[in-house]
Amino acid sequence: MKISDCAAFLQTSHRDQQALLASDVELTDLTQNTKTVKPGSCFVAIKGQHFDGHEHVQEVVNAGAKMIVVERPVKITGAVLVVTVPNTYKALAELSTRFFNDPSQDLLMFGVTGTNGKTTITHLIEKIMTDHGVQTGIIGTMYSKVGTKKLPAVNTTPEPYAAQKTLSEMVKAKDQACAMEVASIALVQGRTWGIDFDTAIFTNLTEDHLDYHKTFENYFDAKALLFSQLGNSYHRGAKKKTAVINIDDPHGQRLIEKTAANVLTYGTKGKGILQAKNIEITNKGTHFDLQIYDETYPVSLKLMGNFNVYNALAAFGACYEHGEKPAEIIASLEEVQGVRGRFQVVPNDQDITVIVDYAHTPDGLENVLGTINSFAKQRVFCVVGCGGDRETTKRPIMGKIAVQHSTDAILTSDNPRTEDPEKILDQVVAELAPHTFTRITDRREAIHYALSQAQAGDVVLVAGKGHEDYQIIGTTKHHFDDVEVVNDYFNHQS
């Protein structure tokens, strides 16, 4: 991309426009990171919480940058073009989209948002579409999948440059579609600007991330951005746009009013175009009748739980709207064993059902425990904690849910980060009666304690971290994997 190409889309002054048009310099790279600037780079100065790129522009000039995009005047010396825009973050999204040749136009884009279920739904979509000849990538919490290669994830939804680069790599790898988790914070920050979603999927909305959003209404408004930005064009040649919305969630109806796209509603309570009826949950899986318009199909999932019925409906609806046949979609869904860290059953030889799950919100924990209680015959142990440097209001709620929906609640540490884990636990247990829980701060010890108390036929839930293979203490990541800890316990028993 040449500097002159930027004149077509950057919002800037007439003088800067003329300067852009006059330059035939080829940009070699694009970055917001001062440490990755190379000769010929375009550097976009972003003001973040802890770092302001405007204060380091001379460094990037010295490193060979040929173009700098800023929001405010800066002092520099050297041969470099400085362009001023109202919003450098939006400029970064625009530049990233063009730099990588607008890759989302070459992909069928599924965007999944909501509090719970995003990871499972993206994996279900990937399975269905790939099974039926549409090679599909993933961008999400656990990793990004490009072609057959898995890449580590930094954020659930990457920054604009990283997102566009990943989508570009998918196109090069012959991917035809992408299933992407879209986080509320990412939507507010504009990380998805420039991505042309074909289908937006809403799962549910419960209390989460209020440390960032401050109010629940702000949280809803953030999620709604994915839908309000979808389908506002009916011009010839425009890609089909569809919103797949959980109508059982009270916020679903509000989202319908936010989008101009076609809407496919789903649910289990008698409403919706797509419905699940006659749901039966066992410790081996879940059975139900799927109804879409006037057709009904039996479904037998290996996945357990009412929440997985919703996940399956969401994935079904998204793929159905893009032309996949119902029976073929169901065949793919019925093959899915599960997603790592999402109601993952850990095998052992002591006849104890051990489940590791990412449930880290009140609603998520209640749903998982509800599923367990639907088949549990004896004691239910729940090992759970709350993360540090995150909203504090949900902490006592998580404690109450653990106590109310299990026979044995073991409250422990999660990722304390820079907070004192003991003070976090003080808040978790603040509204609990004495002797209704066991408090063990060390997470490994807490898991081992639960397993040592469990007997054949009991269920042990280890909640909160799921797929994560680390524990953040202070600012340091330490290796910690709940599944490994469980396996370590049983290995030492044999």
Structure in words:
The protein is an alpha/beta fold. Helices cover 33% and strands 22% of the residues. It folds into 3 domains: 3-99, MurE/MurF, N-terminal domain (Udp-n-acetylmuramoylalanyl-d-glutamate--2,6- Diaminopimelate Ligase, Chain: A, domain 1), CATH 3.40.1390; 103-335, Mur-like, catalytic domain (UDP-N-acetylmuramoyl-L-alanine:D-glutamate ligase), CATH 3.40.1190.10; 344-493, Alpha-Beta Complex (Protein-Tyrosine Phosphatase, Chain A). The strands form 4 sheets. The protein has an 11-stranded mixed beta sheet with strand order 8-7-6-9-5-10-11-12-13-14-15, with helices on both faces. A 6-stranded mixed beta sheet has the order 16-17-21-18-19-20, with helices on both faces. The chain has a 4-stranded parallel beta sheet with strand order 1-2-3-4. α4 crosses α11 (326-335) and α12 (362-375) packs parallel to α13 (394-404). It is globular and about 75 Å long.
How would you summarize what this structure contains?
With 494 residues, the protein is of the alpha/beta class. The protein is built from 16 helices and 23 strands.
Gross morphology is globular
Instruction: Give the strand order, joined by hyphens, for the main sheet.
Output: 8-7-6-9-5-10-11-12-13-14-15
Largest sheet: 11 strands, mixed
Number of separate helices: 16
Q: Which topology of the largest domain does CATH recognise?
A: UDP-N-acetylmuramoyl-L-alanine:D-glutamate ligase
- Please report the total strand number as a whole number: 23
- The span between the termini is 62 Å
CATH class of the largest domain, named: Alpha Beta
Which structural class matches the secondary elements?
A: alpha/beta
How many discrete domains? 3
Query: How much helix, percentage-wise, in residues?
Result: 25-40%
What would the average pLDDT be, to the nearest integer?
Answer: 93
- Gyration radius (Cα, Å) is 24 Å
CATH architecture of the largest domain: 3-Layer(aba) Sandwich
CATH superfamily of the largest domain: Mur-like, catalytic domain
The fraction of residues in strands falls at 15-25%
Low-confidence stretches: none
